[in-house]
Each structure stands twice: as structure tokens, then as C-alpha cells.
Amino acid sequence: MARLKDWKVEELNGEQKKIHDDIVNGPRGKVVGPLRIWLNNPELAKCAQKVGAYARYKTSLDKSLSELAIITTGRVWSSEFEWEHHAPLAIEAGIKKEYVNIIANAKRPVFTNEDEQIVFDFSAEANILKNVNDKTFKLALEKLGKTRVIDIVGICGYYSLISMTLNVFKVPTDTPDWPIPKINDFSNMLKKD
Question: Phi first, then psi: what are they for 34, rounded to 5°?
């Protein structure tokens, strides 16, 4: 970790060790990336990891739609660590690799699955525009329902926190197999032809 010295488990105080053990014994199974940063501030780590457990494992969205919202958020933030961890998970969950590659290049895929298109468009707008236009919101609400729309916002918000943490603290990638291109303009992710 370039901006903060990394820690060893034996260096953690009692509060940090309890949170560490909660994470290790939960669905994540290990403390990596932003969790290693947050553990330097145990109260934030405790709260954020609980929100994260919900955002990643317990939302009303199926895994493919959840991972789609995650990689869309990670791509807009240009968070290499996030991208390299979740792009393979999105494919494993059922998002076609061709769509993942289009997102990697900061472009809007045209999905054959309507729910995937809705989740992508909603997530892209939320992250790029910092809002969602009325048409996108209405369609998402009509097709996905209130709970899933709220969960998309929760996922995008949580993974923005993760991506910001990774970028600000310069957390290095540990799986450099799938780098994302350096792009500053994400407007092509919004273009509807």
C-alpha cells in the first residue's frame, strides 16, 4: 500500500482484531484492498464492512446484476483493483465477456437482456451524471421494482466508497491480468444510439 504502511494481524489492537476476525469469518474470508485501509480506523471498518456485506451478498439483485452495477461503478472510478477483482466475478455470474470488455473501454454495451441494460444504464448515469434521468428511473422502477432500484443505488454508493479508498490510498492491484485503459471521458457509456 503506497500511501499507508500495511499492517500485520499481530499488530492490531483488540478492537481492530475483532473486526478483522469478523471479516475473515464472514462471506469475504479475507481482509484485502479497502478493508485493509479501513481497519486503520476501526469504527469506519466496522460500519463499512457491514454495509459491504449487504451490498455484495444480500441485496435483492441476482449476482449477475449486482456484479454489473459493481463493475460499472469501478470502471467510472477507474479503480484497477476493483475492476480486476470484479470483472471476472461478473463474467462468472453470467455477464457476457464481450459486454465486460465494452465497459472496460468506457462504452455502453447494448445488452440482449433487458434487466442487464436497465442496471447498466442506471448505474452509469448514477456514477457519471451524479443522478439518474427521469426516463431511466421510471423504467427501472417499473421493471425492477422499488427494492431493487434502492439496492442499485446502495451498491453504486458503496462501491464508490471502495473505489475512492483504493484510488486515494493507491492500493496496488494484486491481479494485473486485466488492466483497464486509462480513460477520462465516460460520456460514451451514456450514448444511446
Answer: -65, -30
Burial class (CB in 10 A: 0-12, 13-18, 19+), 5: exposed
Cell of 84: 480486476
What is the rounded distance in angstroms from the CA atom of residue 88 to the CA atom of residue 93?
A: 9
* Gyration radius (Cα) of the chain, Å: 17
* The overall pTM is greater than 0.85: yes
Give the pLDDT band of residue 175 (cuts 50, 70, 90): low
Which amino acid belongs to residue 70?
Answer: I
Q: Which three-class secondary structure string do you get for 49-103?
A: HHHHHHHHHCCCCCHHHHHHHHHHHHHHCCCHHHHHHHHHHHHHHCCCHHHHHHH
- What is the model's pLDDT at position 2? 66
Question: CA angle at residue 154 from 149 to 159, to 5 degrees?
Answer: 130
Torsional sign, CA 161, 154, 121, 111: positive
All three cell numbers of 111: 445488452
Residue written as grid cell 434502492: 150
Could you tell me which of 115, 112, 26 has the C-alpha nearest to residue 63?
A: 115
pLDDT tens column, 98-156: 999 999 999 999 999 999 999 999 999 999 999 999 999 999 999 999 999 999 999 99
